[in-house]
Design goal:
Helix 1 crosses helix 4. The longest helix is centred in the C-terminal third of the chain and has 18 residues. With 83 residues, this protein is mostly helical. The protein is built from 4 helices and no strands. The protein has a domain of 48 residues. Pfam families: Sigma70_r4_2. This is RNA polymerase sigma factor 70 region 4 type 2 domain-containing protein. One of its GO terms (molecular function) is DNA binding.
């Protein structure tokens, strides 16, 4: 297997990096804590002194930014998300 990424893979990676950079402060922090640091929702809630529900909300918002950046429409569940 080749260690080099294809042009398409590099473009998708750049789009994802830009999406993470465009996320709002806490949305980005929660996203990175879940995806990079592999922390659980309760761990993140304790770390940032917020509720688990707030962690869920921030993560959902960050996923929406990422999905839009990757040219995907909103998930079907988005319209049912409780605000």
């Amino acid at each position: 297997m080749s260690a080099r990424m294809s042009r398409e893979e590099r473009l998708r990676l750049r789009r994802a990096e830009r999406a993470v950079a465009q996320m709002q402060g806490m949305d980005r922090e929660v996203f990175l804590a879940i995806r990079i640091d592999e922390q659980t929702y309760p761990q993140i809630a304790e770390r940032f002194d917020i509720s688990v529900a707030d962690v869920e909300r921030h993560f959902a918002l960050s996923l929406r930014v990422l999905m839009r950046a990757m040219d995907q429409k909103d998930a079907w569940w988005w319209k049912f998300w409780p605000w």
